[in-house]
Amino acid sequence: MPDAFIETAYFKDLMNRAVLYLQAGYAVHFCGPAGTGKTALAMHIAELLGRPVVTLQGNDEYKPSDLVGGNSGMRRRKVLDNYVHSVWKAEEAMDSVWYDGRITHACRNGYTLVYDDFTRSKPETNNVLLAVLQERTLDLSTLQKGETKLSVHPDFSVIFTSNPSEYAGVHILQDALKDRVITIPIRGLDRESEVAIVSGRSGLPWREAARIVDIIRGIRRNSVKKPSIRASIMVATILATRGFKPLSENPVFLQVLMDVIGSEIFYESDDVSNNQLLERIRTELEKYISEDRK
Ligand SMILES: Nc1ncnc2c1ncn2[C@@H]1O[C@H](COP(=O)(O)OP(=O)(O)OP(=O)(O)O)[C@@H](O)[C@H]1O
């Protein structure tokens, strides 16, 4: 069963805006840093639209045929005609077998396409989407002999996600595509949403989830590396498994934090014992907790 989506005021606002634009026939693009809930939000909105959902994960190796479809093998057809009993007539034909790629499948049937991290695919691969978004036709002429233009089903819609701060393995979003979608920037989760998600996903009570979230948010604000909500969910889930409390005097809590996010705080190759590291993380934590109370 997929994880239940937690709707806070922050998410409701984004959902209402996105559903409005999608129902008016425009594609929506959530653009923001890692772990800010873009994929979860896109999938939830896709489900709200009430159409089957097709997902696609951007990939640098993709060619247009990986998205649109292609020919896989040949089909041989043989007809033997013995209508006049003394005469045998044989007819043989070979033709290629076309299979729909995910985009074609969604366009043909009016499904909702969630194209996650789509800037990981090359711009020339994503170009097949330009006419889909602008003219609502899918051009298959370079790939298929028979059907060359597919009229896009009126219920077809697309939700894109991308992370502009990722520098490895992503491509610049081409202007032509940028021009055809409504980009909603996702700057980061608000505290209420983050606590609600961490509490909901781990089962920890609100106050305990809030303590973990405040620490991670403090580190995110102050360190070069930015631990995302995934770190908070991890710490909370581990504590909840054995009923441990997120208190700074609890050595298990400090050790779990150390293991999950220690590498985000300490850079130097620390030639110190685990106890010294734990002491340091305790000092760090106190700083973040008190900063958050200000
Ligand atoms: N509203 C929500 N309800 C429940 N869980 C959520 C919600 N938003 C985010 N999450 C959880 O937070 C984590 C990060 O969310 P998600 O994967 O959607 O982020 P993302 O912005 O797509 O990240 P990335 O750019 O790294 O792919 C996931 O474990 C996800 O299930």
From TrEMBL:
<feature type="domain" description="AAA+ ATPase">
    <location>
        <begin position="24"/>
        <end position="189"/>
    </location>
</feature>
<keyword id="KW-0378">Hydrolase</keyword>
<dbReference type="GO" id="GO:0005524">
    <property type="term" value="F:ATP binding"/>
</dbReference>
<keyword id="KW-0304">Gas vesicle</keyword>
<dbReference type="Pfam" id="PF07728">
    <property type="entry name" value="AAA_5"/>
</dbReference>
<protein>
    <submittedName>
        <fullName>Denitrification regulatory protein NirQ</fullName>
    </submittedName>
</protein>
<dbReference type="InterPro" id="IPR013462">
    <property type="entry name" value="Gas-vesicle_GvpN"/>
</dbReference>
<keyword id="KW-0547">Nucleotide-binding</keyword>
<dbReference type="GO" id="GO:0031411">
    <property type="term" value="C:gas vesicle"/>
</dbReference>
<dbReference type="InterPro" id="IPR003593">
    <property type="entry name" value="AAA+_ATPase"/>
</dbReference>
<keyword id="KW-0963">Cytoplasm</keyword>
<comment type="similarity">
    <text>Belongs to the CbbQ/NirQ/NorQ/GpvN family.</text>
</comment>
<dbReference type="InterPro" id="IPR011704">
    <property type="entry name" value="ATPase_dyneun-rel_AAA"/>
</dbReference>
<dbReference type="InterPro" id="IPR050764">
    <property type="entry name" value="CbbQ/NirQ/NorQ/GpvN"/>
</dbReference>
<dbReference type="GO" id="GO:0005737">
    <property type="term" value="C:cytoplasm"/>
</dbReference>
<keyword id="KW-0067">ATP-binding</keyword>
<dbReference type="InterPro" id="IPR027417">
    <property type="entry name" value="P-loop_NTPase"/>
</dbReference>
<dbReference type="GO" id="GO:0031412">
    <property type="term" value="P:gas vesicle organization"/>
</dbReference>
<dbReference type="GO" id="GO:0016887">
    <property type="term" value="F:ATP hydrolysis activity"/>
</dbReference>
